[in-house]
């Protein structure tokens, strides 16, 4: 396969200033006429101009009104080569494409009765011949023609300029986008859609029409999306001084989408999962997801669209920055501490393992063969952490100055990560040269902290040591600058002064090893390091159990308070795994749990976080070889002991927190805590166990919201309660008309940690509601299965073999999703020898698949070189 290198970037020899598209939409055969204005920008004449084009059937080709002769162009696998083109010219092409047959969901496709597009990263070349690269910005005019009956709604980017009727019941609409944009931001939609409208007045007093397009029966489920959009618009004005720039902002929801959502200029296309919610069908987490994804795509209007990317190696320039912005938005809307815990949990669950395995790559990658494989946790989540560190290092006001300069310099341009860092430096006269290493170096640094109190000198000495493990292609690592936010606590639980007037400091660790001494400390202190998780590193903490237990009760940094309990739990779990025993509840952990259970002052959402055990995946990450079954049993038994030892407290919470459904943050936190109590009680051994199961069944049957219903449903299915079969049927019957709810039904079954799950999943794949063409459904089953440690990683290798077979099947339809779902197999080196062998065989089987996609081929090749 062709490998594209970052170092090979060349400015395009031509620019396209204008693109006029005309599409006659038919599911089987759509005709696309395109008129492109080319202008040479190279100093010397170009002998060959390569236009991108994929799966296009060329019908006609004209240059400046004249049909091109055979010696003037050449068709290739990758597109069309114009030979000796003039300095400036108009190219007119007509091609035929097949939207209904396009199961890749890239380019123009027809699904669920609608025509939709997805052009990021390289989908536009599946619509017409063009320079499909982000540094090529053109003004678009788009005319859509379709039958009025099937497609009453015709949408594209920008403003609708004219509409009209045609013969045979067809109609048309013409859209113009005044903002030049790269082809990856092009979008069009045609279908039978209902619309919800609202208005937004910008800070400068302009009215913007907000529209959400959904199926008629979903119009009642758009309130959260619309409300989140308006809050996001206000937030970007308040925090960054950025207003929306068109008169109309459209969102379209679809069930058939590879990603979460797409920020096409003025016309976002969303996976319905991040638009539709009603209390009966969506959980609190779903509501939260909508808020953050709506905000994310909206924020892209400035960080991504107005300022766009020079090339795809810069992807984190828009994604890392925009994730940082959406995380901060959510933190401002909800509880900042709980938000941070969730963000770090995601980073550790997805990005840390990626960074430690064969798919590790820098936030700014150096090479790719299929760019779709680089929409990764590293580019997104680690990228966001890097922006967060810049924010931490500069300070809030200075960061804003840097952003202002970035927009001022680069509005309307396609730029690089380097340009972003330079703006941050120049706006603040700061030197971030060392910081650039974070973008070029892969791997998660290990930060080892040791500290000691010197009673004679009344001082505390802290030494930090950093080391980044080798990653593929990068055997030797340099130290990176690590901002370590820290405080010292005295034994009364107060933060002490650190030299000057500060009770918290940011230590900037730039060398491999550095020490700091804090004086004037009459009594011993306990350090709270990396507060708020101030850098994406693995901290090896100097704390013993007593100190952790102390911080679990006293640290006023929510993240570190949570982390202290997590560390205690991890330690207990690793001890149980090591001697294959039942996890005991060590004194320090019991103490921390008791104190948290007993403290009704703690915000319930935060209390639920404090009381949740680390996931099996996270525990596995802390081990040299992941002991699949032992981890599962240790975690179960620790849940059981915590449940059993505190039965009255959990029962008390379960009953006290019962309330009629409301949507405010406090009610959400209370539901979370109550359902956590239920999960402890169901997992534990106690006299009232039967009664709790009854409660769970009642909760399932009578809940007035999906959060509670699903929590009970999941517990009953996981624990295979004797009437689980009936409950599964009942759930399906109730919700079969709601695809997003049925996704949950599929996912929960695929994730049940039970020996019969593999057989169950085989049945699910032939269930009438299963559809290989709908990524949400496929991800529910296959993604749920791959996230099921004891079943996917079954010792006999059956999970891997089964999974690889399904990926083969999926790859023929949807390579992007297949490649994404293949990544769990890349972790093979983390398991014992028999599993390594079985995963290796699964990967070899995939590698030998006929017609293997470039997407999947790259993931396999890098996973198993
Ligand atoms: N650019 C999209 C997003 O992350 C993904 N294609 O918002
Ligand atoms: Zn994004």
TrEMBL record:
Domain named Peptidase M1 alanyl aminopeptidase Ig-like fold is located at: 443-541
Q: Does the keyword Cytoplasm apply?
A: no
UniProt xrefs under InterPro entries:
Aminopeptidase_N-like_N, Aminopeptidase_N-like_N_sf, PepN_Ig-like_sf, Peptidase_M1, Peptidase_M1_dom, Peptidase_M1_pepN, Peptidase_M1_pepN_C, Peptidase_M1_pepN_C_sf
* Ion transport recorded as keyword: no
Name the needed cofactors.
Zn(2+)
EC annotation from Swiss-Prot or TrEMBL: 3.4.11.2
List the GO molecular function terms: alanyl aminopeptidase activity
Q: Which UniProt keywords apply?
A: Aminopeptidase, Hydrolase, Metal-binding, Metalloprotease, Protease, Zinc
Q: Which reaction does it catalyse?
A: Release of an N-terminal amino acid, Xaa-|-Yaa- from a peptide, amide or arylamide. Xaa is preferably Ala, but may be most amino acids including Pro (slow action). When a terminal hydrophobic residue is followed by a prolyl residue, the two may be released as an intact Xaa-Pro dipeptide
In which family does this protein belong, per the annotation?
Belongs to the peptidase M1 family.
Identify this protein by name: Aminopeptidase N
Q: Which organism is it from?
A: Acidithiobacillus ferrivorans
Q: What is the lineage of its organism?
A: Bacteria, Pseudomonadati, Pseudomonadota, Acidithiobacillia, Acidithiobacillales
């Amino acid at each position: 396969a062709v490998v594209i290198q970052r170092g090979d970037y060349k400015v395009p020899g031509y620019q396209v200033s204008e693109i006029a598209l005309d599409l006659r939409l038919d599911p089987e055969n759509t005709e696309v006429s395109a008129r492109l204005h080319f202008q040479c920008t190279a100093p010397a004449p170009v002998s060959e101009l390569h236009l991108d084009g994929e799966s296009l059937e060329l019908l006609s080709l004209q240059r400046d009104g004249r049909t091109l002769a055979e010696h003037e162009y050449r068709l290739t696998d990758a597109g069309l080569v114009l030979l000796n083109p003039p300095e400036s010219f108009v190219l007119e092409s007509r091609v035929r494409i097949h939207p209904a047959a396009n199961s890749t969901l890239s380019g123009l496709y027809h699904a669920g009765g609608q025509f939709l597009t997805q052009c990021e990263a390289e989908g536009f070349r599946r619509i017409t011949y063009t320079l499909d690269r982000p540094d090529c910005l053109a003004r678009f005019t788009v005319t859509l023609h379709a039958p009025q009956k099937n497609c009453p709604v015709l949408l594209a980017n920008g403003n609708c300029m004219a509409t009209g009727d045609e013969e045979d019941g067809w109609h048309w609409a013409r859209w113009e986008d005044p903002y030049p944009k790269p082809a990856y931001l092009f979008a069009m939609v045609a279908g039978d859609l209902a619309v919800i409208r609202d208005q937004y007045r910008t800070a400068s007093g302009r009215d913007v029409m907000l529209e959400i397009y959904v199926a008629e029966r979903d119009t009642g489920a758009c309130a959260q999306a619309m409300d989140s959009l308006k809050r996001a618009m206000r937030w970007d004005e308040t925090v960054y001084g950025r207003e929306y720039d068109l008169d109309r902002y459209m969102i379209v929801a679809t069930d058939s989408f590879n990603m979460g959502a797409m920020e096409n200029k003025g016309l976002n296309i969303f996976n319905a999962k991040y638009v539709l919610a009603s209390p009966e069908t969506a959980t609190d987490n779903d509501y939260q997801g909508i808020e953050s994804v709506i905000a994310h795509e909206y924020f892209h209007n400035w960080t991504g669209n107005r300022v766009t990317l020079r090339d795809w190696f810069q992807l984190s320039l828009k994604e890392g920055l925009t994730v940082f912005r959406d995380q901060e938005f959510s933190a401002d809307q909800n509880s900042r501490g709980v938000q941070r815990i969730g963000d770090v949990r995601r980073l550790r669950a997805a990005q840390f393992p990626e960074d430690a395995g064969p798919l590790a790559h820098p936030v700014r990658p150096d090479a790719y063969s299929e760019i779709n494989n680089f929409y990764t946790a590293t580019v997104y989540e680690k990228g966001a952490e890097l922006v967060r560190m810049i924010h931490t290092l500069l300070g809030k006001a200075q960061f804003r100055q840097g952003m202002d300069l970035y927009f001022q310099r680069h509005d309307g341009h396609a730029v690089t990560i380097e340009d972003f860092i330079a703006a941050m430096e120049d706006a603040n006269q700061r030197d971030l040269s060392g910081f650039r290493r974070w973008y070029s170096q892969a791997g998660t640094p290990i930060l080892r902290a040791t500290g000691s109190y010197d009673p004679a000198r009344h001082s505390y000495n802290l030494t930090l040591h950093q080391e980044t493990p080798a990653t593929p292609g990068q055997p030797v690592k340099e130290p990176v600058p690590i901002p370590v936010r820290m405080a010292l606590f005295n034994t009364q639980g107060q933060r002490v002064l650190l030299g000057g007037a500060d009770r918290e400091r940011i230590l900037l660790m730039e060398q491999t090893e550095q020490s700091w001494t804090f004086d004037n400390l009459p009594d011993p202190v306990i350090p709270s390091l990396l507060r708020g998780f101030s850098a994406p590193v693995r901290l090896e903490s100097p704390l013993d159990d007593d100190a952790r237990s102390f911080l679990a009760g006293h640290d006023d940094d929510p993240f570190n308070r949570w982390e202290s309990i997590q560390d205690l739990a991890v330690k207990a779990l690793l001890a149980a795994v090591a001697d294959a025993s039942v996890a005991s509840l060590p004194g320090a952990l019991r103490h921390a749990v008791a104190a948290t259970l007993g403290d009704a002052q703690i915000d319930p959402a935060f209390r639920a976080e404090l009381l949740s055990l680390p996931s099996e995946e996270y525990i596995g990450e802390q081990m040299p070889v992941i002991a699949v079954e032992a981890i599962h049993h240790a975690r179960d038994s620790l849940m059981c002991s915590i449940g059993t030892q505190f039965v009255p407290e959990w029962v008390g919470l379960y009953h006290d927190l019962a309330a009629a459904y409301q949507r405010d943050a406090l009610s959400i936190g209370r539901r979370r805590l109550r359902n956590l109590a239920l999960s402890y009680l169901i997992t534990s051994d106690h006299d009232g166990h039967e009664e709790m199961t009854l409660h769970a069944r009642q909760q399932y049957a009578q809940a007035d919201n999906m959060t509670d219903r699903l929590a009970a449903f999941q517990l009953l299915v996981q624990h295979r309660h004797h009437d689980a079969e009936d409950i599964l049927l009942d759930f399906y019957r109730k919700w079969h008309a709601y695809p997003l709810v049925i996704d949950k039904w599929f996912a929960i079954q695929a994730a049940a940690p039970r020996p019969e799950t593999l057989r169950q999943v085989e049945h699910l794949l032939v269930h009438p509601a299963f559809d290989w063409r709908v990524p949400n459904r496929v991800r529910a089953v296959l993604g749920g299965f791959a996230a099921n440690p004891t079943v996917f990683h079954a010792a006999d290798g059956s999970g891997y073999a089964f999974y690889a077979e399904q990926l083969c099947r999926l790859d023929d339809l949807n390579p992007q999703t297949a490649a994404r779902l293949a990544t769990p197999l890349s972790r093979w080196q983390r398991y014992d020898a028999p599993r390594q062998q079985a995963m290796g065989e699964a990967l070899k089987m995939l590698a030998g698949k006929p017609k293997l996609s470039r997407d999947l081929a790259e993931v396999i090749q890098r996973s198993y070189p």
